[in-house]
């Protein structure tokens, strides 16, 4: 089969926003679906050799079904691959590739924005102006929300990959000291330049999570971990929602055992109205939640699409590129 004979299908192209997909259509017979519901996946896989997806789930039953008989490559348009059953893909000879590092700059700067918002409450103060509160102030300034300087503070980083490293670099520009955690669940002595996770939690003024979701990291920040943190500390999560025990976090925030938290990810996205974090954000002024948008800078999304094209080109010419299975 020549590289031009491969048939390619996008299952959730809307998740890439306004980035052009013309390069895919120029190179291959390419079908584009803006969104694909779980019940539609099987039908839309039929007859295609390459599937591109961001968050659509391909589990064992789907990969083993007749619909996936012709499938040769799963091109994950993301870094995380937890929505694909990699073992099932290997067993059926289907290759899987991802795109590492494409959003490091975007996520790192968004992480810093969340840290700055908790430290300065700039957004909250902007809301006071929009509501007319400043006009009624008896003096030129307002002190409704406490603020603090980042210089001299310790930032604990859990997950020191592309994003964690960029966050550390940016934080140092604000005069912060980075404390790098050893990999959660790792065995043996702590590597040079790293600290045990418990020590990072207890010493840091801000803890930022950048590790993948694995059996070892699920609910990594639970009641015990939160109890180790300073009551004046902030917790940031731009990685995966399930890294945090939501109920334990809400209790810590409500009881002021933690000064604040900012999250760009939840365990279910989009979340239901009764999700504990969504309910809590409506009542707690020390909790900030954004809709999984840290990665969405235009430059990052373009970089992502360019890398997916290169991954598929490599595959269709007999080469492995960014292969994870």
Summarize the structure.
The protein is an alpha/beta fold. It contains 12 helices and 11 strands.
Strand order of the largest sheet: 7-6-8-9-10-11
Mean pLDDT: 95
The SSE string, one letter per element, is EHEHEHEHEHHEHEHEHEHEHEH
Shape by Cα distribution:
globular
Q: Predict the CATH topology of the largest domain.
A: Rossmann fold
What ranges have pLDDT less than 50 throughout 5 or more consecutive residues?
A: none
**Main sheet makeup:** 6 strands, parallel
Total separate domains? 2
Helix percentage range: 25-40%
Write up this protein.
With 325 residues, the protein is an alpha/beta fold. The protein has two domains: 117 residues, 3-Layer(aba) Sandwich (Rossmann fold); 186 residues, 3-Layer(aba) Sandwich (Rossmann fold). 33% of the residues lie in helices and 13% in strands. It contains twelve helices and eleven strands. The strands form two sheets. A six-stranded parallel beta sheet has the order 7-6-8-9-10-11, sandwiched between helices. Strands 2-1-3-4-5 form a five-stranded parallel beta sheet. The longest helix is centred in the last third of the chain and has 19 residues. The radius of gyration is 22 Å and the shape is globular. The model has no long low-confidence stretch (mean pLDDT 95).
Key terms for this structure?
325 residues; alpha/beta; Rossmann fold; 2 domains; six-stranded parallel sheet; five-stranded parallel sheet; 11 strands; 33% helix
Present the secondary structure layout:
Layout lengths: L6 E4 L11 H6 L1 E4 L8 H5 L4 E4 L6 H4 L9 E4 L9 H6 L3 E3 L6 H17 L1 H9 L23 E5 L3 H12 L3 E4 L16 H7 L2 E4 L13 H6 L5 E4 L8 H9 L5 E4 L12 H6 L5 E3 L8 H19 L9
Parallel strand pairs: 1-2, 1-3, 3-4, 4-5, 6-7, 6-8, 8-9, 9-10, 10-11
